[in-house]
């Protein structure tokens, strides 16, 4: 109720609410206007300062990753901003060639792409049935899946790991795909079911009268109409899978050939405790793709958060 | 709250309900089966299994009753873990929701709104692993007198403050970790609260202003009560998140230097000490603590369904 579709439309990018000077001008003296202008100027300074503070850590990493190894470990990154500039791509070259992070990047993609699309497809089928089909226990099972949202994934790790080891799945990509699908489903089903249920019922009705099957309605009406919500979900799931550490850590069974970026970097932190030149470039490489996705599709990302946040 | 089309659509459309659905029940099960089977394997089966394991010894060869649970609440190391989790629960939730609210209110009135929001929101796209590396450069420590390459120590050095080992000194290393989490999740809270702020009717605020309400009165008497349901949603999300907190601690301290929390200790018991019994008991403890939140969520969802 709190975060409904109506609010989802007012997004990050929406125009700021400005005061209505016309209505107020008469009732205000010039002194108050002046104070107001000063106040809003101060406010702008404060929030910009806040934005800068929030950006400094990431910016620091960005600058560091382009500094020569010898300088990273002896001077603060901010001193690199003062001319004469001394920047290099060597850290990136080192990371990609010597540390096998290039392979890790590919592994991250191999894990993330099915890890994003599998749960979306399975959730879309389930969500359609929960929204537009009738079967006994429908609401019970829907509520049940939503309840799973809060169960710590840690609980699944031991028993599923044993199960996977028994059937020889541990260390395979398929183990991680299945895990990400299962862990992503509660949120995905919840989000899509609410979007699907909000579609106008006359549409479904007339399609049924025309003799269209559920299968046809799903593919030719529901899916095309739900592209924005599917996009929100996709971005969300992608970021989650790409940034995940725990699932890969456990289900890949320490197989370094299949380790994604997060796992490789975590291992670098362990074994190279203070090899900061390598770490900076590696960390920034791992952030590059999610950041691009984020800035390109920020609108959908925010919409997904707003629609999904009702889950609590 | 405004009523939208979204809310007035009933779960089961009336026309649809009237249709004959004979023979369609099994078909519906086919549609939900993949989801239900996966959830059964990854949630329900492990849940039952973990409950059983939590009553067994380290290698699951015999039953030990409540011994693992007693260990959690008597062993000093475990008590430390619980204490840290409580600190996280209170501080991290308050900081993310509180800052999120304040920032949302502040940016609501300025022209640079979307830029500021983006800046606060970016850390959401960053993995905890990368965030760990980023914040190492903030917390880096060199002995006094040496060139400080960590931003925080260098900055404090300007004011002649002694350099500190932020992640090792047990009097504030938990706070240092919570700061990283706050940096990552304030944007999330801010975005949701900000959307709720846009939903407050303009005339309510106008009326209060005409009555001469100060900004502070406006904030406490109008804004906060109006967005209170949203604050509840955001806070429960944070509570669930924080109770399960793992990555940021695992990557930055590994739970050493008295920064251990339940999820990290769970991992250590499992993979470093192979104590399946104690690890499972820790997982069940998390579940028991989170259950009330789950109940609140289901009730909220039910209420929403009833409104449709």
Automatic annotation (TrEMBL), chain A:
Record InterPro entries: MetI-like, MetI-like_sf
Membrane-spanning segments: 33-56, 109-133, 140-161, 173-196, 217-242, 276-297
The segments labelled Disordered in the record are 1-28
Q: Name one GO biological process term.
A: transmembrane transport
**Pfam families hit by this protein:** BPD_transp_1 (PF00528)
The way it spans or sits in the membrane comes to: Multi-pass membrane protein
What are the entry keywords?
Cell membrane, Membrane, Transmembrane, Transmembrane helix, Transport
- Spell out the Basic and acidic residues composition-biased ranges: 17-28
Q: Where is the composition biased (Polar residues)?
A: 1-16
The UniProt entry lists the main location of this chain as: membrane
> Which cellular compartments is it found in?
Cell membrane
Query: One GO cellular component from the entry?
Result: plasma membrane
Q: Where is the ABC transmembrane type-1 domain?
A: 105-297
Similarity comment: family membership: Belongs to the binding-protein-dependent transport system permease family.
Q: What is this protein called?
A: Sugar ABC transporter permease
Recorded source organism is Dictyobacter arantiisoli
Automatic annotation (TrEMBL), chain B:
Q: Which family does it belong to?
A: Belongs to the binding-protein-dependent transport system permease family.
Q: What is the protein name given in its UniProt record?
A: Alpha-glucoside ABC transporter permease
Its taxonomic placement starts with: Bacteria, Bacillati, Chloroflexota, Ktedonobacteria, Ktedonobacterales
> Please, one GO biological process term?
transmembrane transport
What are the transmembrane regions?
26-45, 86-107, 119-138, 175-197, 218-243, 276-298
Q: Which species is this record about?
A: Dictyobacter arantiisoli
Sorted UniProt keywords: Cell membrane, Membrane, Transmembrane, Transmembrane helix, Transport
Mind telling me which Pfam families this protein's record contains? Answer: BPD_transp_1 (PF00528)
User: GO cellular component annotations, sorted alphabetically?
Assistant: plasma membrane
User: Residues in domain ABC transmembrane type-1?
Assistant: 82-297
What is its membrane topology? Answer: Multi-pass membrane protein
Where does this one sit in the cell?
Cell membrane
Please name the SUPFAM superfamilies in this protein's record: MalF N-terminal region-like (SSF160964), MetI-like (SSF161098)
Its main subcellular localisation, reduced to a broad class, is: membrane
InterPro entries cross-referenced by the UniProt entry: MetI-like (IPR000515), MetI-like_sf (IPR035906), UgpAE/MalFG_permease (IPR050809)
């Amino acid at each position: 109720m709190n975060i409904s579709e109506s609010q989802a439309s007012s997004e990050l990018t929406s125009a700021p609410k400005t005061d209505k000077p016309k209505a107020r001008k008469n009732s205000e003296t010039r002194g108050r206007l002046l104070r107001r202008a000063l106040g809003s100027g101060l406010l702008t300074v404060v929030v910009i300062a806040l934005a800068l503070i929030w950006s400094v850590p990431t910016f620091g990493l960005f600058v560091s990753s382009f500094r020569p190894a010898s300088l990273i470990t002896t001077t603060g990154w901010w001193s690199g901003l003062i001319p004469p500039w001394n920047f290099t791509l060597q850290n990136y070259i080192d990371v990609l060639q010597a540390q096998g992070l290039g392979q890790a990047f590919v592994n991250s993609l191999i894990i993330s792409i099915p890890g994003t699309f599998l749960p979306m497809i399975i959730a879309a089928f389930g969500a359609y049935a929960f929204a537009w089909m009738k079967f006994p226990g429908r609401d019970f099972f829907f509520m049940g899946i939503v309840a799973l949202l809060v169960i710590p994934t840690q609980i699944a790790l031991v028993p599923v790991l044993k199960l996977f080891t028994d059937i020889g799945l541990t260390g395979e990509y398929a183990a991680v795909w299945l895990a990400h699908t299962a862990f992503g489903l509660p949120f995905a089903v919840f989000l899509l079911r609410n979007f699907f249920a909000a579609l106008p019922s006359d549409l479904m009705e007339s399609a049924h009268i025309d003799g269209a099957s559920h299968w046809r309605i799903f593919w030719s009406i529901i899916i095309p109409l739900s592209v924005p919500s599917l996009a929100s979900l996709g971005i969300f799931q992608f970021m989650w899978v790409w940034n995940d550490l725990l699932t890969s850590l456990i289900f890949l069974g320490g197989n370094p050939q299949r380790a994604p970026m997060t796992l490789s970097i975590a291992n670098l932190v362990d074994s190279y405790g203070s090899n900061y030149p390598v770490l900076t470039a590696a960390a920034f490489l791992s952030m590059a793709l999610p950041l691009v996705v984020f800035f390109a599709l920020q609108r959908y990302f925010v919409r997904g958060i707003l629609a999904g946040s009702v889950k609590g | 709250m405004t009523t939208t089309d979204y809310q007035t659509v009933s779960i089961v459309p009336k026309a649809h309900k009237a249709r004959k659905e004979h023979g369609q029940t099994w078909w519906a099960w086919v549609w939900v089966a993949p989801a239900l089977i996966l959830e059964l394997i990854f949630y329900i089966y492990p849940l039952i299994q973990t409950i059983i394991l939590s009553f067994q010894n380290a290698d699951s060869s015999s039953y030990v009753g409540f011994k693992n649970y007693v260990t959690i609440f008597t062993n000093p190391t475990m008590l430390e873990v619980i204490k840290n989790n409580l600190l996280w629960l209170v501080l991290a939730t308050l900081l993310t929701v509180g800052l999120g609210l304040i920032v949302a209110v502040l940016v609501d009135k300025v022209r640079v709104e979307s830029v500021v929001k983006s800046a606060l929101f970016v850390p959401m796209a960053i993995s905890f692993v990368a965030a760990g590396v980023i914040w190492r450069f903030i917390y880096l420590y060199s002995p006094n007198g040496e060139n400080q390459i960590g931003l925080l120590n260098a900055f404090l050095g300007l004011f002649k403050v002694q350099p500190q080992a932020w992640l090792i000194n047990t009097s504030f290393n938990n706070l240092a970790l919570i700061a990283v989490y706050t940096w990552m999740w304030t944007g999330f809270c801010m975005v949701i609260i900000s959307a709720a702020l846009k939903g407050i009717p303009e005339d309510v605020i106008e009326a209060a202003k005409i009555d001469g309400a100060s900004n502070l009165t406006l904030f406490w008497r109008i804004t906060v009560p109006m967005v209170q349901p949203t604050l509840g949603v955001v806070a429960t999300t944070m509570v669930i998140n924080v109770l399960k907190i793992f990555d940021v601690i695992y990557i930055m301290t590994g739970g050493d230097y008295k920064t251990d929390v339940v999820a990290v200790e769970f991992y250590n018991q499992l993979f470093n000490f192979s104590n399946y019994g104690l690890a499972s008991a820790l997982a069940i403890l998390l579940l028991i603590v989170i259950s009330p939140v789950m109940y609140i969520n289901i009730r909220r969802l039910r209420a929403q369904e009833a409104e449709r």
